[in-house]
Design brief:
single chain; 79 residues; mainly beta; five-stranded antiparallel sheet; 0% helix; elongated
Length: 79
């Protein structure tokens, strides 16, 4: 398994990260790209794209996904 991870912060709260991995056991590449826009600690907007590719032409793409997640904290003590 070989991997490369890179990240870049545009501001302390806006970032992009990428992870590329290759597995020689299954002859497969996987890619993970993440964008984060943080509001406070652990809350904000997150966009994640995952892609898995094999080199076997019969299999083709093995998986692709896109996730969009927005998290927000709120105080329930007032209820």
């Amino acid at each position: 398994l070989a991997s490369l991870k890179l990240g870049y912060f545009f501001t302390p709260r806006i970032y992009v990260q990428g992870l590329v991995q290759y597995s020689d056991q299954v002859d497969q590449w996987s890619t993970n790209l993440r964008f984060g826009w943080l509001n406070t600690a652990g809350t904000g907007l997150f966009v994640v794209y995952n892609d898995v590719q094999g080199f076997d032409t019969l299999r083709g793409p093995q998986g692709r996904s896109l996730f969009i997640k927005f998290t927000r904290q709120f105080n329930v003590a007032g209820f």
